[in-house]
Design brief:
disordered N terminus, globular, 3 domains, two-stranded antiparallel ribbon, Glutaredoxin
Length: 381
């Protein structure tokens, strides 16, 4: 078989290989390098602006205070300034997203930019700017009710709006802090969008994040539903398994940070708060406990469990203020038997024991006062 090659000055049918043809691989490689070093086009640059502003806004939200009710005039002023600064970052994100989908209507990211504009607009609302509030809610409402948008995106925007209304009504940071309003809102979304997996995912978020009794009820709804996806039901069963520990004695072996073996029972007191946190991610200590350092809870023992071995503190960093207590380390991290037994899905997370060393309740760090007040309450059947 004869290979016929036509290249450069040689006529068709000539079996000689042109020296130019031998250079083609090198030329193609060089052209590939050139393509990699070309500056991004205007659309890519604009999308990069959107994502960078999204990151800045979300970072500011993570750093925001745990609650809305301030305990002093200084705290109130600081909180107001932080809320305003965070809102401005979300407004900048919404503007960047609006500019992107207006100027690059056919770009593959245009649809996502429309969703981000609606979401960021709601997050950018402040109590003092009613004009912006009306505009942002109008954009979100239009996105929510436009059937050509993906239904999962419409649900996300609708949930953002409803969470905003709950927060305004109850002065709480999280939409699931008031489980009655949260469940009513999710049922309203079911009526609006049907039995969608995303809505049952929000029910799961309610079950995992609200206080333990309400979480148990939300998990039961998921497990008993004919429409909830199977993976969502499996995670809801974990919530029910954790709830089954309430009013049961709780004890397990621990290793103190100094290396000595002990047990939870040995470290417990009249009231015991067990706080699990992500040590490798937060080597400075469990976050969100500075208020309990400043105002210690009476007759309370604290047991801090680092899930994973904490790393060294970065240069110049300081340890987080926490109450006096015992610090333990679970070197297996999330593979620890303690994490498996307690069905811990997120960190930090707290468990409260009464004076009989029985589990009284569990929840987020900002729920500790309510968990302490709930010691001795009846347990749901």
């Amino acid at each position: 078989m004869t290979l016929t090659v036509c290249a450069g000055p040689f006529p068709a049918g000539n079996t000689r290989v042109s020296p130019y043809l031998r250079l083609l691989p090198a030329l193609c490689f060089a052209s590939g390098l050139g393509a990699q070093t070309l500056p991004p086009n205007a659309a890519d640059q604009a999308w990069s602006q959107v994502t960078s502003k999204e990151k800045a806004a979300n970072d500011a939200r993570v750093r925001s205070p745990q609650g809305i009710v301030a305990t002093s005039r200084t705290d109130a002023s600081r909180y107001k300034a932080e809320v305003e600064a965070r809102a401005q970052k979300y407004r900048a994100m919404a503007q960047a997203a609006r500019d992107f989908h207006s100027q690059h209507t056919t770009h593959p990211k245009a649809a996502e930019a429309r969703k981000l504009e609606a979401l960021a607009g709601v997050q950018g609302i402040t109590p003092t700017d009613k004009t912006y509030e009306r505009s942002a809610l109008a954009v979100a409402r239009a996105f929510r009710t436009t059937p050509t948008h993906p239904i999962e995106d419409r649900i996300q925007v609708a949930h953002s709006m409803e969470a905003f209304f709950i927060g305004r009504k109850t002065l709480t940071r999280h939409w699931y802090d008031n489980p009655f309003l949260a469940e009513t809102m999710l049922d309203r979304l079911r009526g609006e969008f049907g039995e969608q997996p995303e809505i049952w995912g929000l029910f799961l978020s309610l079950a995992q994040n609200t206080y333990c009794d309400a979480g148990k009820e939300a998990a039961m709804r998921i497990v008993q539903s004919a429409y909830a996806p199977r993976p969502t039901k499996e995670l809801a069963r974990r919530v029910l398994e954790r709830y089954s520990l309430v009013r049961q004695p709780l004890d397990f072996p621990l290793t103190l940070a100094q290396g000595r073996a002990t047990t939870l029972g040995e470290l417990a007191g009249k009231t015991t708060i067990v706080c699990l946190w992500d040590g490798p991610r937060h080597p400075e200590g469990p976050p969100g406990l500075h208020d309990f350092k400043a105002k210690p809870l009476p007759n309370t023992k604290w047991v801090f469990i680092s899930v994973g071995v904490p790393g060294d503190l970065p240069k110049g960093a300081k340890s987080t203020p926490v109450p006096s207590g015992s610090t333990c380390v679970e070197s297996l991290g999330r593979a620890s038997p303690i994490v498996a037994r307690l069905k811990v899905d997120r960190l930090p997370y707290v468990f409260v024991l009464d004076e009989q060393r029985r589990l009284s309740g569990y929840g987020r760090v900002d729920e500790i006062p309510a968990l302490i007040a709930g010691i001795g309450r009846p347990v749901l059947p």
